[in-house]
Amino acid sequence: MGDPMERRRFLKVLGVTGGGAALLSGCGIGPEPTEKLIPYLIPPEDQVPGTPTYYATTCRECPAGCGLHAKVREGRVVKLEGNPESPINHGRLCPRGQAGLLGLYNPDRVAGPLERTGDGQWKPIAWDDAIGRVAAKVKGARGKGIVFVTGHESGAFGELVDEWMRQVGGRHVIYEPFAFEALREGNRLAFGTSAVPWYDFANARYLVSFGADFLDTWVSPVGYQNGFARAHGFQAGRDASMAKFVFVGPRLSLTGMNADEWIAAARGTGSGNRAERHRAPGTRVRRVQGRSRGGGRDRGPVPERRRHRGGGEHPQLCRGHGR
């Protein structure tokens, strides 16, 4: 048994702990809020305590739309994995899809409808109230200019939005940070359908990629990785010869590292501008016309530095193109 606690020592310990608690409270660090444990006296039909439940869903971290299996424990999603029956990812899932739970449990995530107040703040409102307001706004603006903004939608949801906009006289606007308009236009010219195509890498025998990093971030990387693995590997029931892959690009990306041959294109050659390919970064290009002082012909683009009003050299150089 230890020594008995003296009165003076007891007061010292009490003062230290009390001051520490006050300091933590002043910093905004306090005790955790009290939570009540509700026993499963009448549990939900699809929930068994201690036994996970799996739900099939779709990943929306990128427009590819890979199939998911969400592992749920006591009503909370705890893990995401690829759906083996999905024709896109065949059970595989990229790190971005694995991190989808971070967005689900983000404390700043918008979990319901909000109304902007007069002072610029956001106030939660009920779903019925929000749906009623949206219906009234759509009815009042019918035929006057309604725009529905979404990301790249390749499934039934995109068709639903298109049909709804046709009914109310609006437009479906697709916002894409990395736009696929060139793919859509090329597919329309070649096949008559303005849509982002799906490339069948699995049945290809010779692949040539001009800057398309399809093994990393391009369109549907997980699906294309599966197809490329089948085309570029030995599989049972297939021809023994592997497909050859040539990658053309200025950077040795993940796709370029997996190529049989990497052709390093010069920086800026994709612009088609000869002056752009040879100028220094941060300079504007001007073209000198006529004959030069040495009697020669047009010397082509010449780097030019912009000067500010004070006559000195501007610290930042402007960018531009030749004629």
Overall description:
With 323 residues, this protein is an alpha/beta fold. Among the domains are: 52 residues, N-terminal domain of TfIIb; 67 residues, no CATH class; 46 residues, no CATH class. Helix content is 27%, strand content 18%. The protein contains nine helices and twelve strands. Strands 1-2-3 form a three-stranded antiparallel beta sheet, with no helix packed on it. The longest helix has 20 residues. The chain is extended and about 85 Å long.
Shape: extended
Oligomeric description of these chains:
single chain
Strand content: 15-25%
Helix-and-strand structural type: alpha/beta
> What Rg is obtained from the alpha carbons, in whole angstroms?
31 Å
Stretches with pLDDT under 50, minimum 5 residues = 20-24, 271-323
Record field, number of beta strands: 12
**Sheet with most strands: strand arrangement:** 1-2-3
